[in-house]
Amino acid sequence: LDTSKTMHKMWCWLIVFHLFVLYDFVHCITLTEVRVPKHTIRGHAVKLECHYDMEGEALYSVKWYKDGREFYRFVPRDDPPGSVFPQPGIAVDLENSTSEQVILDPLDLSSSGKYRCEVSAEAPSFQTVSDHGEMMVVVLPDQDPYITGGKPRYQIGDPVRVNCTSGRSKPAVHLTWYINGDPAEPGLVKRYEPRITGADKLETSVLGLEFRVKPKHFKHGDMKLKCLATISTVYWKSNEESVEGEKLQKAPTLESRRAVSADSRADRVQVIVTLVKTVNVR
C-alpha cells in the first residue's frame, strides 16, 4: 500500500512537472524586432524600436540599456509608466517614448554605443528576452571634398599629382578616385593617415593620385578626375575636374611622319632607277 501511495505521488509530481514544462513551452515571449540604426547624425533625433510578442503573457517591463547601463524603463502598472535614468550622451524624449520605442533627442558623439532592449513578463513565468544593436553617431564634414595640385592642360607623358581632401568629420571620410568614370587602379592611389584636430578630435581625410598621362586617359580630348567622399549611407559628395589634352602636341608628330614617308618614296624611286640602268647596260 505504501508503495502504491509513493508511486501515486511520483506520478502526480511528474504530471505537474510536465504541465510546467508545457506551460513554458506554449507561453514563450519573443522579440520580433529590435531596431537600432547603425549610423545617425550628431544633433539629430533617433528612434530606437523594440517589438515583441507576449504570447498571452502579461508585460511586466521593457528596459533599455546603453553599454550595460539602464537609461529607460517602461512599466505599464506604474504611473507614469516611463522612467529615465540619466547618463552621458542620453537625452530621452519621455513624452514620445513608449513600451515599443524610445526617442533620443538630440544626439552627440557620446551617444555612440551598444543599445540593448530587455522585455520581461509578469508572474508566474517571469520570462525575460533581450537583443541589442550597435549605433555610431556621425559628424558630417564641414565642407565638401576638394581637389588640389591639378593643371588645366596635360600632354602625353606628363606626371599627374593631385590630392583630394575632405572636411573635418567623425569618423574619417572614405575617399575614392575615379579617372573618366572608372575607379583608379590601386597602384595609382597614395594613402595618408587622417589628420585629427580640435577638442572633438574630428578627422580630415586626404587621398593622393599619381600617374603619367597616357593616350587612354583622354576621352574626346578631355580627362576627367573625380573624387568621391562617403560615410556609410549618411553622406555622399563628389568633386570632379575636367582637364584638356594639349592639342598642339600632335603637329610635330604628323610632320615627322610625312617627312619619313617622303624619304621612303625617294629611296624606292632611286632603287628602281638603278635597276633599270643595270638592265640596260646588260
UniProtKB/TrEMBL annotation:
Any single Pfam family the record assigns to this protein: C2-set_2
Residue span, Ig-like domain: 43-130
Gene3D superfamilies in UniProt: Immunoglobulins (2.60.40.10)
Coiled coil (UniProt feature): none
Any GO BP: motor neuron axon guidance
Keyword terms, alphabetized: Disulfide bond, Signal
Name of this chain's protein: Ig-like domain-containing protein
